[in-house]
Backbone:
């Protein structure tokens, strides 16, 4: 696909809580992110779309401290967090549900959720656990079951629930619908909207561009480590290049 020229991004009217400014991230000698600049406003759902290898997961890892930019800056709530370690970012309010779920298969559902809340007080965890169970009633039913015996959809619920136990103000979601049956995909996206409605800002990486753009406020299209297009979710969904490359239209 020929990369379309980047379009100027209209800054969201909401307060900016997360900003990447000219971020360059490497895996050894491999230049994975090439000057990524994005903004996420408070209360928004912003989505990153693009093909495999475009740099979407690397962007989330750079935000959550699993990788650090060699050049550029990551700001969270006005603070430079480019080189803050992951556990400190969790306490600051950044939650991350990673690609592939990465649950603790030998721990029970409850134990997985408790691991998510290890930086919080007992009282906070009791309150947040109830919120997670309200979002995911199936997890309450399976609270004593080992994580590895859950279905794929239940494991995804558990991964998101574990991230919510950190009490995030910004939640990073990496491919939450990957490998799920269509009916479960719809359910997961409805839950994402509900999480956002509760006041949590969301940065969503998702290969299902149709669903992602349907619930997002704005989006960025990544290609080979660069932002090649950005705009409102509505504009991106109507963009001819996006429709052909990511929405499966001829």
Residues:
């Amino acid at each position: 696909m020929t990369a379309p020229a980047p379009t100027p991004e209209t800054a969201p009217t909401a307060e900016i809580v997360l900003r990447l400014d000219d971020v360059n991230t490497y895996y050894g000698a491999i230049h994975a992110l090439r000057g990524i600049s994005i903004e996420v406003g408070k209360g928004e759902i912003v989505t990153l779309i693009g093909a495999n290898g475009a740099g979407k997961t690397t962007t989330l890892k750079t935000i959550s401290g699993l990788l650090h930019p060699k050049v550029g800056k990551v700001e969270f709530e006005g603070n430079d967090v480019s080189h803050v370690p992951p556990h400190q970012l969790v306490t600051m309010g950044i939650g991350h549900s990673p690609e592939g779920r990465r649950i603790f298969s030998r721990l029970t559902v409850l134990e997985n959720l408790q691991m998510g809340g290890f930086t919080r007080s007992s009282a906070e965890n009791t309150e947040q656990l109830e919120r997670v169970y309200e979002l995911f009633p199936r997890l309450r039913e399976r609270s004593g079951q080992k994580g590895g015996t859950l279905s794929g959809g239940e494991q995804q619920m558990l991964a998101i629930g574990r991230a919510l136990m950190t009490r995030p103000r910004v939640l990073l979601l990496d491919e939450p619908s990957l490998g799920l049956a269509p009916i479960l995909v719809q359910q997961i996206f409805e839950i994402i909207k509900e999480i956002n409605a509760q006041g949590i800002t969301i940065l969503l990486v998702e290969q299902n561009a149709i669903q992602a753009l349907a619930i997002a406020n704005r989006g960025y299209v990544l290609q080979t480590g660069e932002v090649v297009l950005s705009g409102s979710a509505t504009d991106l969904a109507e963009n001819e290049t996006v429709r052909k490359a990511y929405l499966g239209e001829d």
